[in-house]
Amino acid sequence: MNYAIPCSHRGLGLRFATLCVAAAVSLNVPAKESTFNQVFTEKGEPSTLHFQAVFTSNGGEHHLEVWRDGDRRVKRRTDDLIETYASRKPGDPEFHLSILDMKRRIHTQIDRTNLYRIGNFTDWFDLAHGLKHPMGVYRVVKIQAPDGTPSAIKSCQWYDLIQDKHATHICWSAQSRIPLLIQAQDGVVVWRVTSLDWKPFPAKTFEIHDEGFIRNDANQDIERD
After folding, report:
1. Sign of CA dihedral 33, 159, 116, 208
2. Domains and CATH numbers, the chain
3. What is the pTM of this model?
4. Using CA atoms in the order 175, 81, 87, 94, what is the torsion angle rounded to 10 degrees?
């Protein structure tokens, strides 16, 4: 079982990688949407949410900060190295991404359709809610907190997401519509929310500042292939 989706295109892997590690539970099998959607639903989500989380990927620990403006806008900052801005019309599966590589000073723009063309199946739920829809045969079972699991920052309900005899333990917040803790079957905590609030955002939260950056329109590159 993987916790990140490998994704790359013409050297863009570093910038796209941050889209694939938002504590996403990648099960690499076909989808059974209804059960997942019933348990990990976005319905009733707060109009604004700001949280910080620590997650592990490829053997390292990373820090993520997310601002979620309902179902219209999301801003994500990973390790102060990558900033991702996603926007869409409410309820539309299509969205636009701006990905800023703060170290290399490159601003890449790409749309959901072209992400799919290069094999990156990130969707809005992944970006805004910290879980990737599973694919294939799976079960979702309500459980008690696993032994030895640290306490979550707020109240949440534990579930097992089970596939191929592997279980990922997820403590889902019905209030915030995100996982507050995710624990792998071996007991390792791979995702932990460290702070969250529902306060209105400062006016300039979703402004993109890319002065002096190289601007890369990945849509044009992909559509020319």
Report:
1. positive
2. 13-205 (2.50.20)
3. 0.83
4. -100
> 49 has which bridge partners?
68
CB 113 within 8 A of CB 121: no
- Backbone φ and ψ for 13, nearest 5 degrees, come out as -55, -40
Distance, in Å, from the CA atom of 16 to the CA atom of 7, rounded to the nearest integer, reads: 7
Q: Which of 212, 224, 130 is closest to 179 using CA atoms? A: 130
Q: Is the CB of residue 155 less than 8 Å from the CB of residue 175?
A: yes
Q: Which of 77, 72, 24, 88 is nearest to 51 (CA)?
A: 77
pLDDT in tens, 11-57: 444 444 445 444 344 434 343 345 898 999 999 999 999 999 999 98
Q: Which amino acid is at 80?
A: D
* Phi-psi category of residue 136: left, alpha or beta, with phi > 0 → left and psi -120 to 50 → alpha: left
Q: Do residues 153 and 142 lie in contact, with contact meaning Cβ atoms separated by under 8 Å?
A: no
Element (H, E) at 79: none
Q: Which two tokens stand for residue 185?
A: 């079957």
